[in-house]
C-alpha cells in the first residue's frame, strides 16, 4: 500500500513537472480554458440583466449553481484525464505498455496522466464563482453546511468520473466514442448550468436519471439554498449525491473489469 | 522458457515452438507471417484463439503479478517512455513500477546509457528526441529491468551502425549469462550472428526451427569457390555446379554443398591444370536471412 502511494506520488510529480515545464505557456493555456468556460457564465450574467430572476434564482444563486459544476470537474480531471483520453491512449499504443507492466490498469490510467491545464482552468473558474457567490446567497456556513458541501463535491466528482470511466470502457467495443462524449457529457453539462426546473420534463428526466448532472450541482445547491422550485422533486434527492456517485462509480468499475478482458491489441 | 503449442491467432495456424532457457532465437519470414503476433502472444498482449502459450509453465500475463520482472518486451510503435517525460523521469518511473532498488538500477542505467550512448540527452523530453535517440533509450529501458525473457520486435529499426553493434554486444553478453532472447527483425545485421537458433514462419507454422548451420544447408546450401589457375581452362562439365563465372584466369564456381564437396571439385581441377590460389566461401548468415 505504501508502495502504491509512493508510486502515485512519483507519477503526480512527474506529470505536474512536465505540464508546467514552460511557465508562461502553462499560465496562458490554463487562462484560455478559464476564459472559454467563462463564456457560459457571461451569457447567464447578461440574461439576468434583462430578467430579474430565473424561476426564482437570482444572479448570485445561479453563479453558485455554476460553481459546483466547475469545481467538481476541475478536481475530477486531475484523476480522470487518462480516461477522458482513453481512445488516444489505446491508439498510440500507450495502453499496451500499461498492460505489460506489473501494475493495475486503472491505477496507471488514473495516475499516469493529469490534464493540469483543464484542472486549473475549470477548478479556478469554479473557485472564483464560489468566492463571488458564497457570501451572497444566504447560506450560513457552519460545520454542517461545510461538511455537506464537501461531501457533495466528492459525490459530484465520482458521478462525472463514473461517466468518463463508462465512456472509456465503451472504447474497448467501439473504435471512436468522442462524439458520444460530446453529446452525452459536454452538451448535457450546458443544461446543468441552469436550474433544471426551467426545462421540459424530458430534459429534466435525462439530467436526473440518465446523465445525472442534477446530483452534481442542482440538488446540492437546493439543499443549501432551499428555492421554491424544489417542491417538484422528492426531498430525498437532496441527500442522494454521494449515493449516486458511489453507485455509479461501482457500476462503471464493474463494467470496466468485465470489458477489459476483451481488449485486443492489434496484430501489428 | 517459452512454449507454443498448436497456437492459432491471426495468421498463425497450428504453430508449435519450444524455446529453451538461454537460447537466442531469431524469427524469420516475410512481412505478415506472424512474427509480431508471436512476440505479442509471448508477452501476453495477445491471447491465442486456440492452443496455448506458456512462459516457464504459466500464462505470460500471470507473470505480470510477479514483482520480479520476468518478461520484458520491446515493440516498435509501442512507446515505453511517456513522450512528455524526460528520459531520466521515464526511467525513474520504470524503477518504481518494478520495485528495483535505487543503487542497482541506476548503476545498470549508467552502464547502458553509456554503451548505447544517450547520456547527452537524458534530461530532454522524450518527444523532443529523434527516432534513433528514442530507440536507444527505450531499448535500455527494457534491458534495465533485467528480465529473464527479452522479446524484441524490430530492435534495429532507427539504430545506426554503432547502435546496432552496441546492442548486439550487450545482448550476446546477457545471453551468455542466461538471458533468453526472441527477436524479429527485417534488418538482421549483427542480430543473425547473435542468434543460437532461427525459426522461419511460413503459412502460420514454423517451417524451419534450428541452428544457423542447419538453416544454411537446408535453404541456401550454395557455396562459392574461386580458383586462380595457371594453365588452361579446366573442364568441369560433369560436375553438378549451379553456375560459374570466368574472368581471365579467375574461375568462380557456385555449387550446392549437399551435392558436391569442395574437395571433389578441387581434385578434378588439379588433374587438369595448375592452381595458383583457392578460396572457398560459405554464404554468411546475414546475406541469407
Give the tally of β-strands of chain A. 0
Order of helices and strands of chain B: EEEHEEHHHEHEHEEHEEEHEH
Question: On the 0-100 scale, what is the average pLDDT of chain B?
Answer: 89
Q: How is the CATH topology of the largest domain in chain B named?
A: Rossmann fold
Number of helices of chain B: 9
Q: Approximately what portion of the residues of chain B adopt beta-strand conformation?
A: 25-35%
CA(first)-CA(last) distance of chain B? 25 Å
CATH architecture of the largest domain in chain B: 3-Layer(aba) Sandwich
What structural category do the secondary elements of chain A indicate?
mainly alpha
Q: Approximately how much helix is present in the residues of chain A?
A: over 70%
Beta strand % of chain A? under 5%
Largest sheet of chain B: 6 strands, mixed
In DSSP terms (H or I, runs of 4 or more residues), the helix count of chain A works out at 12
Fourth-level CATH superfamily of the largest domain in chain B: P-loop containing nucleotide triphosphate hydrolases
Uncertain segments of chain A of ≥5 residues (pLDDT<50)? none
Low-confidence stretches of chain B: none
Structural class computed from helices and strand pairing of chain B = alpha/beta
Largest sheet of chain A: none
Give, in order, the helices and strands of chain A. HHHHHHHHHHHH
Task: Give an account of the 3D structure.
- Chain A has one domain (2-262).
- Chain A has 12 helices and no strands.
- Chain A has helices at residues 2-19, 23-50, 59-84, 86-91, 94-100, 105-111, 116-133, 143-173, 178-192, 201-210, 218-225, 241-259.
- The longest helix of chain A has 31 residues, at 143-173.
- With 289 residues, chain B is α/β, with parallel strands linked by helices.
- Chain B has 2 domains: 2-217, 3-Layer(aba) Sandwich (Rossmann fold); 222-283, Alpha-Beta Plaits.
- Chain B is 31% helix and 29% strand.
- The longest helix of chain B has 16 residues, at 161-176.
- The model of chain B has no long low-confidence stretch (mean pLDDT 89).
- At the A-B interface, helix 1 and helix 5 of A face helix 1, strand 5 and helix 2 of B.
Amino acid at each position: 500500500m505504501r508502495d502504491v502511494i509512493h508510486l502515485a506520488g512519483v507519477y503526480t510529480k512527474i506529470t505536474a513537472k512536465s505540464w508546467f515545464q514552460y511557465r508562461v505557456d502553462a499560465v496562458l493555456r490554463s487562462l484560455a480554458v478559464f476564459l472559454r468556460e467563462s463564456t457560459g457564465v457571461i451569457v447567464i450574467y447578461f440574461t439576468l440583466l434583462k430578467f430579474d430572476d430565473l424561476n426564482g434564482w437570482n444572479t448570485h444563486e445561479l453563479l453558485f449553481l455554476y460553481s459546483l459544476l466547475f469545481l467538481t470537474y476541475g478536481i475530477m480531471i486531475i484523476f480522470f484525464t487518462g480516461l477522458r483520453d482513453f481512445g488516444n491512449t489505446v491508439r498510440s499504443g500507450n495502453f499496451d505498455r500499461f498492460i505489460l507492466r506489473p501494475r493495475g490498469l486503472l491505477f496507471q490510467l488514473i495516475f499516469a496522466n493529469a490534464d493540469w491545464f483543464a484542472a486549473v482552468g475549470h477548478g479556478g473558474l469554479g473557485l472564483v464563482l464560489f468566492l463571488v457567490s458564497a457570501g451572497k446567497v444566504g447560506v450560513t456556513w457552519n460545520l454542517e453546511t461545510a461538511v455537506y458541501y464537501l461531501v457533495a463535491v466528492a459525490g459530484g466528482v465520482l458521478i462525472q468520473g463514473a461517466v468518463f470511466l463508462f465512456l472509456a470502457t465503451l472504447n474497448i467495443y467501439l473504435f471512436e466514442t468522442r462524439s458520444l462524449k460530446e453529446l452525452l457529457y459536454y452538451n448535457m453539462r450546458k443544461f446543468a448550468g441552469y436550474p433544471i426546473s426551467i426545462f421540459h420534463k424530458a430534459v429534466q428526466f435525462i439530467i436526473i436519471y440518465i446523465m445525472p448532472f442534477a446530483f452534481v450541482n442542482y440538488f446540492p445547491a437546493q439543499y443549501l439554498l432551499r428555492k421554491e422550485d424544489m417542491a417538484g422533486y422528492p426531498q430525498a434527492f437532496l441527500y442522494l449525491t454521494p449515493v449516486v456517485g458511489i453507485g455509479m462509480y461501482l457500476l462503471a468499475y464493474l463494467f470496466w473489469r468485465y470489458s477489459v478482458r476483451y481488449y485486443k491489441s492489434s496484430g501489428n | 522458457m517459452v512454449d507454443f503449442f498448436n497456437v492459432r491467432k491471426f495468421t498463425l495456424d497450428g504453430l508449435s515452438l519450444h524455446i529453451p532457457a538461454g537460447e537466442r532465437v531469431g524469427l524469420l519470414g516475410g512481412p505478415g507471417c506472424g512474427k509480431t503476433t508471436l512476440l505479442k502472444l509471448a508477452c501476453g498482449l495477445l491471447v491465442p484463439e486456440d492452443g496455448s502459450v506458456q512462459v516457464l509453465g504459466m500464462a505470460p500475463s500471470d507473470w505480470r503479478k510477479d514483482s520480479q520482472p520476468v518478461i520484458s518486451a520491446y515493440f516498435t510503435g509501442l512507446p515505453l517512455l511517456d513522450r512528455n517525460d524526460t528520459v531520466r523521469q521515464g526511467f525513474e518511473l520504470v524503477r518504481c513500477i518494478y520495485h528495483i532498488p535505487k543503487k542497482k538500477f541506476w548503476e545498470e542505467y549508467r552502464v547502458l546509457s553509456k554503451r548505447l550512448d544517450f547520456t547527452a540527452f537524458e534530461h530532454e523530453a522524450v518527444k523532443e528526441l529523434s527516432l534513433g535517440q528514442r530507440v536507444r533509450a527505450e531499448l535500455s529501458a527494457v534491458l534495465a529491468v533485467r528480465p529473464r525473457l527479452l522479446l524484441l520486435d524490430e530492435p534495429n529499426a532507427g539504430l545506426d551502425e554503432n547502435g546496432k553493434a552496441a546492442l548486439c554486444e550487450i545482448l550476446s553478453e546477457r545471453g551468455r549469462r542466461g538471458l533468453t532472447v526472441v527477436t524479429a527483425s527485417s534488418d538482421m545485421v549483427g542480430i543473425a550472428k547473435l542468434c543460437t537458433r532461427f525459426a522461419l514462419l511460413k503459412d502460420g507454422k514454423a517451417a524451419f526451427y534450428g541452428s544457423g548451420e542447419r538453416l544454411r544447408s537446408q535453404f541456401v546450401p550454395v557455396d562459392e569457390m574461386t580458383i586462380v589457375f595457371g594453365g588452361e581452362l579446366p573442364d568441369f562439365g560433369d560436375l553438378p555446379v549451379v553456375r560459374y563465372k570466368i574472368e581471365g584466369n579467375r574461375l568462380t564456381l557456385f555449387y550446392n554443398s549437399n551435392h558436391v564437396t569442395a574437395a571433389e571439385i578441387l581434385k578434378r581441377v588439379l588433374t587438369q591444370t595448375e592452381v595458383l590460389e583457392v578460396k572457398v566461401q560459405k554464404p554468411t548468415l546475414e546475406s541469407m536471412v
